[in-house]
Amino acid sequence: MSERTWGFKSPLRHRVYPGHRPRNSDFLLDVIDLSSVDLSRSVRRSKSTGPVDRNLVEDPRYSSGPEVLTLETKELEVALLDLDEQNPRLPEELRGAEQPEVLRYLIQTAVIDELARSMVDNGFFPHEPLIVVPKEGSRFRVVEGNRRLSALMLLLELGPVDALDESLVLDSAPSGDVLESLARVPCVIVESRAAVDRFVGFRHIGGIKTWPAEAKARWILQSVEVLRKGGEDDDVFKILGRRVGSNSQGIRNPYLAMKILVHARDEFGVNTTEVQQERFGVWNRSMNSPELRSYIGFGEGAVGGYSDVVQRLAGLDADHLREVLGDLTRRQGARRALLRDSRQVTAYASILANKDAHAILREHEDFELAEQVLERATLSQRIERIGSEVGILLRQVQRDGPSADAVDAAEVLTRLTRSLLVLLKTNE
Known about the structure:
about 425 residues, alpha/beta, two-stranded antiparallel ribbon, about 10% strand, elongated
């Protein structure tokens, strides 16, 4: 057993360690001995090759404790490790599920075969240990590294594998020596999930191993609520953003998308499962649209701090929110949802704002048809704008007199206008 220090790059500045030059990719440093480094102050490297600046003052709200922790690192038997049933990768209905169900989901969604083949060929990389927290008895829960643990469980045929009809596809069976070398792996042991939560968030929200959008949003939602319960002020989005290498908007937008889904489910009884699991990216993009936020009753203008969000949630229009979420969900017997691509969001918001296009969308459940109605309305508006511009030109010529070189251009405009009129009357 040894005492090591687990370091990671702060989102606020580079830390400078003896013999280590910070790089953009250093979100997760190797396990190195930092016992000789004074970390009582924030430090940064100046842009020049001059001395380290140890006078950087940090706003205490943006730190919940030391960013470099001295943690126990030891090899543990894989047979003593459990998957994290609260892993943000898991959909909500699997949160708290039994080990076999968690493993089944990860096998089906997380490309475990490729990871297992890499371990057979290259072993378990010791510079990137699993991060675990103790459970009752002698077991540990893996809070960082669940994909790798899943691969190890399958290779070693341990625990929950017995309850599944799942197997690995390998080029050849691993030798006994290979399996023996994988039976114990390096782990960083932390006393609680909260002690490592900040690192996990930085790594997967703003770092090099980001989660899918829906998993990010669930983690952000949970973290924001925890910070508020802990007494953080109204600027909680900025605080969390600083902690994970993002900014207020990068935290607030996915928080809003997930919070509104939860509100629709819990307060209005809307089934949000398909939107959350299959089209969360489209939903997230939709909630970045001021027009759609206004349509569902979330209010107009820029969204402020936490208290502003709470106040806006109280004003949500249940019918309009149910309508939008319904358009993101496949109707019974339909192959696809009406709103299925983030590139449709701008047109969709315009359709809802146009009385005729909106009526066609609801009557025929046909996005393309509603878009055609919208385009015809838009064409009329464009022609009106061009007419206004021609009127301005007419007044200018009356005031300043004609220009010889403008006659040819005016004749071309006249011909095009006549052709447009013929086409419009033909298609009436």
